[in-house]
Amino acid sequence: MDLGLKILKLRNSRKLSQPELSNKLGISQSALSEIESGKTKKIDFKLIEKICEELHVNFEYFTSDKVYSTVENKSKICKVIINQEDTCSKHVEILLNILNRLDRIERKLNDFGIKKQ
């Protein structure tokens, strides 16, 4: 789910109108509309911080899909490479190290309460 759609769903779940949220954020209603519709791709970090504050979520809420997708894809790729007959032991060692790091990332995300969607 992209950032704009997440903001839209959160705003609706908090029963806030676009004018109400845009006013709290200090931006125009049309700017918020463009963010929610995905027309605005780059959003200033300070604005994202304000959005998190007003919608009562952590920044990780907006990034969790991408992180989990990356973790899952890299993990699958590494396992396939490890199972290849021509993979040398040094490459296997490197890939196992990557998998261990990905596992630690996943545990940290779980500690923050970020779940797969």
TrEMBL record:
Any single GO CC term annotated in Swiss-Prot or TrEMBL for this entry: cytosol
SMART domains on file: HTH_XRE
UniProt keyword terms in alphabetical order: DNA-binding
Superkingdom per UniProt: Bacteria
GO molecular function: DNA binding; DNA-binding transcription factor activity
InterPro entries in UniProt: Cro/C1-type_HTH, Lambda_DNA-bd_dom_sf, TransReg_Diox_bact_type
Domain HTH cro/C1-type residues, every copy: 7-62
Protein name as it appears in the record: HTH cro/C1-type domain-containing protein
